[in-house]
Amino acid sequence: MPFSKETSSNPVTTTKAGERQWCDVGIFKNNTALVSQFYLLPKGKQSISKIGNADVPDYSLLKKQDLVPGTGYRFRVAAINGCGIGPFSKISEFKTCIPGFPGAPSAVRISKNVEGIHLSWEPPTSPSGNILEYSAYLAIRTAQIQDNPSQLVFMRIYCGLKTSCIVTTGQLANAHIDYTSRPAIVFRISAKNEKGYGPATQVRWLQGNNKKTPLN
């Protein structure tokens, strides 16, 4: 499957200022991949994915670029069969770790209970030492968000060594409902080691259309 990431446009190409380009990560025969590099676009090209009637790219002719620590990247994935390439998935965003800091927690799960919801996660796959604590945050309603909906404000709702916590109905009553796509409550979870906190995992808990009753 072709696996591509989005990078800032290169000034030597023909793209307009501010446009983004998709660079190939590779073609894989399984559904997992460890991404540490991507292929640089040839001069004047906006994409190098050639599947179906066209030839598969000769990656041996392309230069590689390492991922930069502490940098955000966008990824998308598509499947290939005998008829060619299918549509790309929704874009996912990830941030690479800074050396020495822990990675982001993974496999976040949300389930309802009598107190509110149960939030759980798995430790970072690259802790870079001992995890000292986790922090979980909830995006809350503020006047600032009303003026600028894309600028979320987070309140810490948990700090401790456990990889789970209870978010009470009282805390959820103050939650901001994000409408950038489907209505959702937004959480962030990050891990801390001896050097400090690493990047956070952000998860959206999808809601119904009623703003006043997010738990329904």
TrEMBL record:
Subcellular localization, as worded in the UniProt entry: Cytoplasm; Nucleus
Keyword Calcium on entry: no
Single annotated GO MF: transcription coactivator activity
Signal peptide: none
Alphabetical UniProt keywords: Cytoplasm, Kelch repeat, Nucleus, Repeat
Domain of life assignment: Eukaryota
GO cellular component, one term: cytoplasm
Gene Ontology biological-process annotations: chromatin remodeling
Protein name as annotated: Host cell factor C2
